[in-house]
Design goal:
The chain contains seven helices and 32 strands. It is mainly beta.
């Protein structure tokens, strides 16, 4: 459509020259829209920016014509200007016979930043291709404001590729729709390549070639292979040194970039990875906290075992008095051991998980150490008062004293005098006493009673013979015999009668 408008504009221009003859006058009212009315004027060349035929055959205003006619100037020196881009080149090269570009006979020049009569715009320069031409005329495909100096911008959606649309990444497909390759701001959309005016855009993603805006192109648009919609997927690295691109999964686990906890297991997955806390730990894999199985009650240790928490695990150890692996604990019969845990003078009694030691009778202590008890000295014996107590290891004995008979705990007096064999001398008398006996030598004998010997009363002077008698010792006694001349029993002697 733009090309047709340009063609019509040019035809209108030449038609105006034929009809007007000597000249025409431009109308400032069409200064920024790119339109002008043709009238008969002395100088038709000044109507070049845009013309409207009196017959109406040329139509209304058309900003695209300005660039095409901008190069036409008056002989007095309106200036030789460059034609506008995209359609204005056919007439842009024509120039007047004299004068510099943009100058007027009255003095003000194009490029001073002030819009004067005969100027569509003035952007303070005489460069072409920026919307305001070297002759201060509106260039095709641009829109210029009324500010001084004039600010011009490309018209997006008119199908003319100029200004920012013409640089790398620009386009103009004669619309402002999105998703067709040329964005509403006339920039080539990602995954497209555009060319021409109006721009024709086609998708480039998936052709195996690395095009503008593509991070990779592996010849398809599938997801999960590292290059999706020509964008490198997270967890992949793509090699674009050849076509199509080849993408390789990044193993974050071996590379050490996973961020998994030291107490977690890292598992690589296509394009990603997972962190899983190891046994004995809990968390999201990035942070793992030790699980205390002992306090949580998940250890499975025996009730007869001690649970000890360790980093990431725990241990079970059977308590004293039990044997096993900690998960199962069996009571130990310590009393059945080869070497008893108790003292040699103690008895061992097995208990659940333990044992007890009790000192035997006659011993005192805690069972593991026992010492003999002296019942005789501590008064705990039961011997008879008439018996003698003798301490023995762990016990004692009771022995009836002399003169008594019994088991020591009960002692009865012994009648020694009634014995078949008298304990006394044959010349002594025996007298029983409690617990003993007494021997007394018979008269005429002397000694202990158990041994008696004859007393010689005659020689000892213990006899009672008369002085006139003769003492004769006998066994156990003596005799007295009156001397001659005396008469009597010997104890008494009187002289005999004459």
């Amino acid at each position: 459509m733009s090309a047709i408008r340009q063609l019509i504009g040019r035809s209108c221009y030449w038609l105006a020259l034929l009809v007007a003859g000597a000249g025409c006058a431009s109308r400032p009212s069409g200064l920024f829209s790119g339109s002008a009315d043709c009238e008969s004027t002395p100088d038709a060349a000044t109507c070049a920016p845009s013309l409207e035929c009196s017959s109406g055959a040329c139509g209304g205003s058309n900003p695209h014509l300005n660039g095409g006619n901008a190069g036409m100037t008056s002989e007095s020196g309106a200036g030789a200007g460059a034609g506008a881009e995209q359609g204005g080149a056919s007439n842009g090269g024509e120039t007047g016979q004299s004068g510099e570009a943009g100058t007027t006979a009255s003095g003000p020049t194009c490029g001073d930043g002030e819009i004067q009569a005969g100027e569509d715009c003035d952007d303070a320069n005489t460069s072409s291709g920026d919307g305001c031409s070297a002759t201060c005329r509106l260039e095709a495909g641009f829109h210029c404001d009324t500010a001084q100096p004039t600010q011009c911008s490309a018209v997006c959606g008119d199908g003319v590729v100029v200004g920012s649309e013409a640089v790398a990444g620009g386009c103009d497909d004669a619309n402002t729709k999105a998703g067709d390759g040329c964005s509403p701001t006339c920039q080539v959309e990602s995954g497209y390549a555009c060319h021409g005016a109006p721009s024709l855009c086609a998708k480039t993603c998936g052709n195996g070639q690395l095009d503008t805006g593509e991070a990779c192109d592996d010849g398809n648009t599938k997801a999960g292979d590292g290059c999706f919609a020509c964008a490198q997927e997270a967890g992949y690295v793509c090699d674009n040194t050849h076509s199509p691109s080849t993408c390789t999964d990044v193993n974050e686990c071996t590379k050490g970039t996973s961020g998994c906890s030291a107490n977690a297991t890292c598992a690589n997955t296509p394009g990603s990875f997972t962190c899983t806390c190891k046994g004995g730990y809990t968390g999201d894999g990035k942070t793992c906290t030790d699980v205390n199985e002992c306090t949580k009650g998940t250890s499975g240790c025996s009730a007869s075992a001690t649970c000890t928490n360790t980093p990431g695990s725990f241990t079970c150890a059977c308590k004293g008095g039990y044997t096993g692996d900690g998960k199962t604990c069996t009571d130990v019969n310590e009393c059945a051991a080869t070497v008893s845990p108790c003292d040699a003078h103690a008895s061992c009694a097995n208990t659940v998980g333990s044992y007890s030691c009790t000192c035997n009778n006659g011993y005192a202590g805690n069972g593991k150490t026992c010492v003999n008890v002296n019942e005789c000295t501590n008064g705990t014996n039961n011997c008879s008062a008439n018996a003698t107590c003798a301490d023995t290891p762990g016990s004692f004995t009771c022995t009836c004293k002399g003169g008594y008979t019994g088991n020591g705990k009960t002692c009865a007096d012994v009648d020694e005098c009634a014995a078949t064999v008298s304990p006394c001398d044959a010349h002594a008398s025996c007298t029983n006493t409690v617990g003993s006996y007494k021997c007394t030598c018979d008269s005429g004998y002397t000694g202990s009673g158990t041994t008696c010997r004859n007393v010689d009363e005659c020689s000892s002077g213990t006899d009672d013979c008369d002085l006139n008698a003769m003492c004769t010792d006998t066994v156990g006694s003596f005799t007295c015999t009156c001397n001659l001349g005396y008469t009597g029993d010997g104890m008494t002697c009187i002289p005999s009668a004459p």
